[in-house]
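Support request, please re-run this one:
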Amino acid sequence: MVAVKRSVVPLALALVLAIVGAALAVPTFNLHIQNIGEGGPQQITVPGGVANANVNWVLDSNPDYVKGVKVSFDKNLNSGTTIYVKVYDSNGNVIAQGSQNLSSDLSAGSSIEIDFSSSVEIGNMDQVAVVLVGPQQ
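Re-run finished. Output below.
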């Protein structure tokens, strides 16, 4: 039988409860995936041949709010490409948006931060859309 100090048991229990509580506090988002280039009957060329994007939330000083995103792509993007991000609530209303025009090339896997015009409460967020518009030729 292993001897455990009585003061360690409450500490371990508190740690387990904190980890479970943190896991339960993570918001759930519905992601509706549309294959790139399937937006309409015409053929669409996606800038840089991008097939995947990663979106990471940037929290405000109040962690109940999101002030923007860091987004990265699986392919390089050329200077002049514009990245648009929109966040929707469960009714399909836009509740936050931001955009960034690349002043230099963005390497695959590198992230760029896009801030929203105002922070949005995490509990109101339901969907996120990322749109790429290639540089003018």
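The chain has one helix and six strands. The beta strands are 53-59, 65-73, 82-88, 94-101, 111-121, 127-133.
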